[in-house]
């Protein structure tokens, strides 16, 4: 996710970026050289005083790792706005590591942000100013849409819906590919049809402001082929209850990580 954020910022012209990564990939090293990004192996190497000190610190660390590393970022929290994208890591837990005066925003972007088509859920903790909110939106809107939630617990719901959501669509494309193969299509063609269908339907959903239900109904004629398939998907034990169970499992896991 950190790489997706970085790519999104570079595409929109965000400058003065410093990356802290103890084991940077070859791709990150190449970007750092090409875009003149300051690359550091540890937080202690980043200047926290003078003009070079960070004004915003984006914490793109997996929650299991952040538990042990959060304290190392306390120096930034003295002056920088702290934006954490770690799932399930509460404001109270972060404040213990960064101090009660830390200005903390929890954010949950998703990987389509790498191409500017993501969405980020945001929650502002007590002490975050209007200017901080504006700054967070300015940075994260480089990845796509932004949406503030009123309660911190809703970030776990955002995580389960949009944070993890791209994987659900990728899995559906895989399943549609396998279904096409089962119906006789060669694998390469089945995958091409499935990928184009999922991508195209997503683009139409973004372009047409009609409810998703209306777009679905426009494709389905009574007694037709689509209706036959939808009767399976929309059965009592079909897609909707399955997705609800899956999203609930993701939300529960986000809570457990905290």
Can you offer a commentary on this structure?
The chain is an alpha/beta fold and 258 residues long. It has two domains: 2-151, Rossmann fold; 165-257, ProC C-terminal domain-like fold, CATH 1.10.3730.10. The protein has twelve helices and seven strands. The chain has helices at 2-11, 26-35, 63-69, 74-77, 91-98, 130-140, 154-163, 165-182, 187-207, 212-219, 225-233, 239-257, and strands spanning 18-20, 38-40, 56-59, 81-84, 104-108, 118-124, 144-148. The strands form two sheets. A five-stranded mixed beta sheet has the order 3-4-5-6-7, with helices on both faces. Strands 1-2 form a two-stranded parallel sheet. The model has no long low-confidence stretch (mean pLDDT 93).
User: What's the number of domains?
Assistant: 2
Radius of gyration: 21 Å
- Major sheet: arrangement of strands: 3-4-5-6-7
Query: In CATH's first tier, which class of the largest domain applies?
Result: Alpha Beta
Task: Assign an overall shape.
Answer: elongated
In percent terms, what proportion of residues is strand?
5-15%
Topology:
Blueprint: H1 2-11, E1 18-20, H2 26-35, E2 38-40, E3 56-59, H3 63-69, H4 74-77, E4 81-84, H5 91-98, E5 104-108, E6 118-124, H6 130-140, E7 144-148, H7 154-163, H8 165-182, H9 187-207, H10 212-219, H11 225-233, H12 239-257
Parallel strand pairs: 1-2, 3-4, 4-5, 6-7
Antiparallel strand pairs: 5-6
Helix pairs in contact: 7-12, 8-9
